[in-house]
UniProtKB/TrEMBL annotation, chain A:
Its main location: membrane. It is a peripheral membrane protein. Gene3D superfamilies: Potassium Channel Kv1.1, Chain A, YVTN repeat-like/Quinoprotein amine dehydrogenase. The lineage of its organism: Eukaryota, Viridiplantae, Streptophyta, Embryophyta, Tracheophyta. SUPFAM superfamilies: POZ domain, Quinoprotein alcohol dehydrogenase-like. One of its GO terms (cellular component) is endomembrane system. This is BTB domain-containing protein. It comes from Lupinus luteus. It is found in: Endomembrane system. Coiled coil: none annotated. PANTHER family: BTB/POZ DOMAIN-CONTAINING ADAPTER FOR CUL3-MEDIATED RHOA DEGRADATION PROTEIN FAMILY MEMBER, PROTEIN BINDING PROTEIN. Pathway: Protein modification; protein ubiquitination. It comes from the Eukaryota.
UniProtKB/TrEMBL annotation, chain B:
Residues 19-103 form the Potassium channel tetramerisation-type BTB domain. It comes from the Eukaryota. This is BTB/POZ domain-containing protein. Residues 132-463 form the At2g24240-like C-terminal beta-propeller domain. Gene3D superfamilies: Potassium Channel Kv1.1, Chain A. Pfam families: Beta_prop_At2g24240, BTB_2.
Length: 464, 474
């Protein structure tokens, strides 16, 4: 119903039991139904309006706000989406007003929802500049597309709309691991700093420091942080580098729950001296993936383990001696673990559905490549998101997706088919080496070596 | 920032609290509380007092589009994005008309200045003879720039508000005495001179004279600072004898003379920098000379009421033996935090001294923990240091860096007694910024940082911003 500039007279007075609600916003009259107002949720501005209308039906509530933006937000309430004319408004104004009405959640849902992630339709669309001379060392995203960027001793947070930012100073010289607990709380750790810090990024204060009490009573540096629905995982190594462990914390209380994969190093057992440098929770299997690698004179070797955190038992493990991983990621929806080999730079996978002792990596990249000691995959990142796997190679991103063949007769060897594509248009290709890759909301974030900015790739359909 | 939604809700039940406005033919409806938030002196407040029984809207013969922007400002305390359609001047003029310019000012003011997240927002360039010889910033973000014997004033919006020409050929020091009156001094001409912006005229001068000593004449001003009631200026004569004169601000007359000295050595030359510390009522003066054998100078604290020296240090000569030959090249006073900061000439280190506890060797040398940032012999590049909002800004050649305090954990009280790890160094600028020229002066004011560079016209303005500043590359 189009709003009209009224002089207070409503042509058709609603009956007392009517569902129709009339609101006067900044001099313009709007009519809607109680059902529409209740979609905003309870205890919001709109629920109060709808209550006040129920008690005094002939009274038209007056709201002293801008009527034009209200009309957009009313459309959002009605349809769940902003009308296209919202494009002529600044998103920041819409966010401000939606906060006043208490429906920012709806706005976030309509604009930056993970379900709108379109892997085949990602464009390089925004550059978020960072002040100062430090290039990003770690990034962390939240579900609705806000991003925290650690650069030097600072952490800059961009909100879900990527319109506002704030920067705090930390005690680290550089943050090596960063995990977003909420849009304003992050866990941060470094290879050269003892303890995992829980940072309140809104106020720039350290809420808590979590330490691992190791046998040598030296400091405990953080090698990796991961999170599951109820737990926060941290891989610690003692400052003397002779013991390491993965501590499981409760996500809410941040109290330690258990400790797994505790290693004390005596003698020359190199294998146990490697702390886990990546932790990923596998939701569908209730397992924690932990992997670590070590580069020595005889090449890179490492391990990949799957842990049952309730029993503290290792469920499966694989040792990496030839073409060890440069990075690993687990895809829940594809039920597979993906790695990019440090020597070959090619992607391989292990099927999670039939894990057994002798499982081996199935290379889905160029198998003919001779592994000749060159570290072509060094620094490559791999990240599974939804039904796709994203792998960086130098300055480019490869998108791997599974091809499901309808005719099972063709698939007698039961090998899964994965195919890759290079992302981006020709002008977006190349560029400096990518050193961080993360996903949040409907966006992909990446940072490049020596570039003081974050690159944002997003689908175009709902962009404002 | 976050407005109370309840206040708007309560207004809805009382129809009499509402007011209709007809601005240039467009109808607006709002509440009395919104329109009165501009304060009792505003035009809008006066209009709201009209008889509320009058059914006709109040007619205002102004542009409705700008009014809708300003109405949004009153409702939300934020300037809507539609304000970008209008120039700063237009908005400021219109806000002044309605009497809500203070609202506009607080909505457009930058957030608290944070050196770790600041970017250059522009440069203020006087139209002619744009090389600034001196400048001074005020708490409201306005700035006075001395250039080529004239002084130009720029308001918080960076709009040029006036210029006056002085009788001096060069102005080397400038100080804000009253909101409209500047004190200026020159190294090429004698005396301290007071100029009024409102009439663009000279309102008074002060010279250093001594009836008993005929050698004291044509004394030039090296540094000026002001307290609530007085102006302090350091004078030196041609034969280098020098002193500080305390001048009454209202009568423009010399009240007293302090710290007179012969000027025949590095430790008694004229102070090149003066700072008055209101919290303790102490005047801090410092002098630095650089020669073939390195830097030397002194820092001295006077109590202007008694004229006595409260504390002093001179380098080389004092300080840790390990720091011998590493005397300071620049100093500044953190007036709010009551601390002295010095930059060592040789090592480039920054050191802090607590003004509440000045001893023989009060210096705490701030350590650089990040190995990639450790300086390695940047001798020869000019260095300036300036304190603003608890942060220390250092210009080394063209590079601008900030030392900011790290938030310590509340439970971690035993640390922080020493300065180690208290401050962290970061670059404010990008590498390409530093190539514009050596930094000559840094000064903060109104949550802005003003920077002037050697042989560069105009002064740079740095601000922090909550805006992400995302650049579209589609």
């Amino acid at each position: 119903m189009p709003p009209f500039v009224g002089d207070g007279i409503v042509q058709s007075q609603p009956k007392s039991d009517s569902n129709i609600v009339t609101i006067d916003v900044g001099g313009q009259l709007f009519q809607t139904t109680k059902q529409t107002l209740t979609t905003a949720g309870t205890k919001t501005f709109f629920s109060r309006i709808s209550e006040s209308v129920s008690t005094s039906p002939f009274h038209i509530p007056f709201v002293d706000r801008d009527p034009e933006i209200f009309s957009l937000l009313l459309s959002l309430l009605r349809t769940g989406n902003l009308p296209s004319k919202a494009k002529s408004f600044d998103l920041q104004d819409l966010i401000q007003e939606s906060r006043f009405y208490g429906i920012e959640k709806l706005l976030i849902d309509s604009l930056s929802n993970p379900s709108q992630f379109e892997p085949f339709n990602l464009h390089r669309s925004l550059i978020l500049p960072l002040n100062g001379r430090d290039s990003p060392s770690a990034i962390a995203t939240t579900r609705y597309g806000s991003v925290h960027v650690a650069h030097g001793s600072k952490i800059t947070s961009f909100d879900w709309s990527l319109r506002r930012k704030s920067t705090v100073l930390t005690q680290f010289t550089a943050v090596d691991s960063l995990l977003a607990i909420s849009p304003s709380i992050a866990a941060a750790g470094a290879n050269d700093f003892s303890g995992l810090q829980i940072l309140d990024l809104e106020n720039g204060i350290v809420k808590e420091t979590l330490n691992w009490e190791n046998v040598t009573r030296s400091g405990s540096t953080v090698q990796a942080i991961g999170s599951g629905p109820n737990h926060l995982f941290t891989s610690f190594e003692s400052s003397r580098r002779n013991s390491n462990s993965i501590v499981v914390y409760d996500f809410e209380t941040l109290k330690p729950v258990s400790e797994i994969s505790h290693n004390e190093i005596f003698g020359a057992d190199i294998g146990s001296a490697i702390p886990a440098t990546k932790l990923e929770w596998v939701n569908g299997y209730n397992l924690l993936m932990a992997c670590g690698s070590h580069s020595g004179p005889f090449g890179v070797n490492g391990y990949l383990r799957l842990w049952d955190i309730r029993s503290g038992n290792m469920v499966w493990d694989i040792n990496e001696k030839i073409d060890c991983f440069a990075d690993v990621s687990v895809s829940d929806s594809l039920s597979a673990i993906f790695k990019v080999g440090v020597n070959s730079g090619e992607v391989s996978y292990v099927d999670l559905r039939n894990l057994s002792e002798g499982n081996e990596w199935v290379c889905i990249g160029d198998k003919r490549k001779v592994v000749n000691g060159k570290k072509e995959g060094k620094g490559c990142k791999i990240e599974a998101q939804g039904n796709q796997v994203f792998c960086t190679k130098g300055g480019d991103v490869e998108l791997w997706s599974e091809v499901i063949m309808g005719n099972s007769g063709l698939m007698e060897d039961k090998k899964r088919i994965f195919k890759k594509n290079l992302m981006g248009r020709v002008k977006d290709m190349g560029g400096d080496k990518i050193n961080n890759l993360a996903f949040g909301g409907s966006r992909m974030f990446l940072t490049r070596k020596d570039q003081q900015c974050v690159e944002v790739w997003q689908g175009s359909s709902r962009e404002l | 920032m976050e407005e109370e939604s309840t206040s708007h809700m309560t207004a809805e039940s009382h129809t009499t609290d509402r007011i209709k406005l007809n601005v240039g033919g467009k109808l607006f409806e709002t509440t009395l509380s919104t329109i009165r938030s501009g304060g009792p002196d505003s035009l809008l407040f006066a209009l709201s007092n009209r008889n509320s029984n009058d059914p006709n809207p109040v007619f205002i013969d102004r542009d409705p589009e700008i009014f809708s922007v300003l109405l949004s400002l009153l409702r939300t305390n934020h300037l809507p994005s539609t304000s970008h359609r209008f120039s700063k001047q237009e908005l400021a003029d219109e806000a002044l008309y309605y009497g809500i310019d203070s609202h506009l000012r607080s909505a457009t003011a930058p957030p608290p200045f944070s050196g770790i997240d600041a970017s250059i927002v522009g440069s203020i360039r006087p139209a002619a003879e744009g090389l600034p010889s001196a400048f001074t910033a005020a708490d409201n973000g306005s700035v006075w720039i001395a250039h080529g014997g004239q002084v130009s004033s720029y308001d918080w919006n960076f709009l040029h508000t006036g210029t006056f020409r002085t009788h001096l050929d060069d102005i080397d020091s400038i100080c804000r005495v009253w909101p409209e009156i500047a004190a200026v001094g020159s190294l090429s001409d004698a005396g301290l001179h007071f100029y009024d912006f409102s009439g663009s005229r000279h309102v008074g001068s002060v010279q250093w004279n001594d009836p008993t000593d005929p050698r004291i004449f044509k004394a030039r001003v090296n540094a000026i600072t002001a307290s609530d009631s007085s102006v302090f200026a350091s004078f030196d004569c041609l034969h280098r004898e020098n002193c500080i004169l305390q001048v009454d601000k209202t009568r423009i007359q010399v009240v007293s003379q302090l710290g007179r000295q012969s000027g025949n050595q590095a430790k008694n030359i004229v102070p090149g920098k003066l700072t008055f510390v209101p919290a303790t009522g102490v005047l801090v003066g410092s002098a630095v000379t650089g020669g073939a054998f390195g830097y030397s100078g002194y820092i001295r604290l006077w109590d202007p009421r008694s004229g006595e020296v409260v504390w002093e240090t001179s380098e080389p000569g004092a300080g840790r033996s390990s720091r011998f030959g590493d005397s300071f090249a620049a100093i500044d006073v953190d007036v709010e935090g009551l601390a002295l900061f010095k930059l060592c000439s040789k090592s480039g280190d920054l050191a802090m001294a607590d003004m509440r506890n000045l001893r023989d060797d009060p210096w705490i040398y701030l350590k650089e923990k990040n190995p990639s940032l450790v300086m390695n012999g940047e001798e020869g590049s000019s260095m300036v240091v300036s304190c603003y909002k608890g942060q220390v800004f250092v210009g080394r050649g063209g590079g601008l860096e900030v030392w900011s305090r790290v938030q310590e954990e509340a439970t971690n009280v035993e640390r922080g007694s020493e300065g180690d790890g208290l401050f962290r160094r970061n670059f404010v600028d990008k590498r390409e910024d530093s190539e514009r020229g050596a930094i000559r002066k840094i000064e903060g004011g109104g949550d802005r940082l003003f920077v002037s560079r050697e042989d560069v016209e105009g002064i740079e303005v740095w601000e922090s911003s909550h805006s992400a500043g995302a650049i579209s590359v589609l």
